[in-house]
Amino acid sequence: MHAVILAGGKGVRLRPYTTALPKPLVPIGDQHAILEIVLRQLSAAGFTRCTLAIGHLGEIIRAYVGDGSQWGMTVDYATEDSPLGTMGPLLGLRDRLPETFLVMNGDVLTDLDYADVLRHHRDSGAPLTIATYARKVHIDFGVLTTDASKVVAFTEKPSMDYRVSMGVYGLSRATLDGYTPGLPLGFDELVLDLLKAQNPPYAYEFDGYWLDIGRPDDYDRANAEFTTRKSLLLKGA
């Protein structure tokens, strides 16, 4: 099984932590980087190959990960000379990828079964499978519904339930057909194109542990929780 880890972003929202370190290498706990945790999880799930799409401070990632042999994997690299969006880096890799593969962000902390996501994707025949998580959003204001300047409904500080993308995807190589390598391609653009073509993505619903370490508050939470979650995230460690 093959995974592509997207590790080329600048981590702007996580500054100042990412001023000198690429976001996937910020430490979690006393001994581990986020990317190390992800690679160890992928290896334990049976993934044997991984491509790291790197850009900002990519040489530090390359020096840290090397050829992946320390995790029993074969790791290669694809370098972004300019930002290509979430899916753009895959276009230049297309000939190096199997028919189906996993794509994920390099800053995800979760006990998701990555192999099961890919199995479901293969079995479904979907062009894209999106791992999703339930989120409840609290609105801090009274919400008005209006019609022709008249208030027709009012809800005081409602909560709204959504399913959000976890930043982990099963993808089929053929789904990338028709896009031009070297040009940016966002996840949003790909999903909208699939919906327009009436070839919808599938959802893989997950309700375990998931944290997208995109902001300082999330990073602080990850470090605070890691000691109690370590056995869950790094089984056998």
List its salient traits.
6 helices; seven-stranded mixed β-sheet; 32% strand; 237 residues; alpha/beta; Nucleotide-diphossugar_trans; globular; single chain
Low-confidence stretches: none
Radius of gyration: 19 Å
Series of secondary-structure elements, N-terminal to C-terminal: EEEHEHEHEEHEEEEHEEH
Largest pleated sheet: 7 strands, mixed
Number of helices: 6
Strand order of the largest sheet: 5-4-1-6-11-8-12
Q: What is the strand content?
A: 25-35%
Total number of beta strands? 13
Shape: globular
As a percent range, the share of helical residues equals 25-40%
Instruction: Estimate the mean pLDDT confidence.
Output: 89
End-to-end separation: 23 Å
Structural class: alpha/beta
Protein name: Sugar phosphate nucleotidyltransferase
InterPro entries: Mannose-1P_guanyltransferase, NTP_transferase_dom, Nucleotide-diphossugar_trans
Domain Nucleotidyl transferase: 3-227
Pfam family, one: NTP_transferase
